[in-house]
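Sanity check

After download, print the first record. It should look like this:
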Amino acid sequence: MAVGKGLKFTDLKEHEIEKFLSAIRRDSSCWYSTLNHGRDGYPRIWIGGKSRRASHVAYVVANGDFPPNKLLMHSCDNRACINPAHLAVATDKENIIDRDSKGRNANKAKTHCKNGHEFTEENTLIRKRKEGGRKCRNCHRIRALKNYHSGNIK
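Expected structure tokens:
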């Protein structure tokens, strides 16, 4: 989830706003951009020599400044959508709660790790870090042993 430095309306030049507005396709309730899309699936536009998410630009054009250390939630759950009516400023935590409440947490539904070990209470380490999550205790142990025997102790 991209939490950035924010974007001010004053950062946008008139010709950049015109270019952005001319690239919007309003086919349905979701609006789409004919601009390039990043690898993450979000449409992007160059503003002031920087690649910016088009949804952030749409929010700024419609609502004013986009605050730093926040992100945009899409009420339509369509990352390609740039309709300002579908965008809401949120914290990372609020976005995660929204994702989980809509059943879009693919990792939560996994019953086994990528190496086939079952996620049971005994075999699951819960991460206490900010981003949370879980990992396989068996894989963690195997990795630790490989590092120990290869001399890559950290």
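If your output differs, re-run the checksum step. Summary of this record's structure: The radius of gyration is 21 Å.
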